[in-house]
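Entry 14. Ran structure prediction on the chain below.
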Amino acid sequence: MTTKSAFALSRRHLLTGAVAALTFAPAARAQSGPLLRVESSSGVSSFTEESFAALPQSVLRTHTAWTEGPREFQGVALKDLLAAAGFDSAALQGRSLRLRALNEYEVAIPAEDCEIYNPLLARSMDGSPMLRSDKGPLWLVYPRDQFPELHDQRYDHRWAWQLAVITVV
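Output, structure tokens:
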């Protein structure tokens, strides 16, 4: 085989590989799984990036125990997401929510937090989408500046980041 034909063969393989990568990239992203799942004894609701973005969006400006100064968070109110999954205020009475993060951190919070504090499932902070390397893609954020009791470290464990699953129990 001459050098010219070896170069042509290598170039052809490179181009074929590039075309295959471009062809399969969207399919791989589509199969990467949901952004968030809501589970209960009655079933599972999955929210993709698109279906999450289609829910009513809210903005919350507050201080956190993990960042400097007040930050602006944008996302979906937890109660709105739960309503989209079939759990209105009446259905949440007396229940709790088990939050599980991508790193397997798990915490239970009273479902009444939805009505009392209206926490936000933040998808972005200060206008930038939150990355997995920095508390994303979803961070449950409480309106700390509006409720003095939330400045207590006993509430800090409820701020679940890298949130992946909410189980209604």
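The chain has two domains: 1-32, 33-168. Will compare against last week's run tomorrow.
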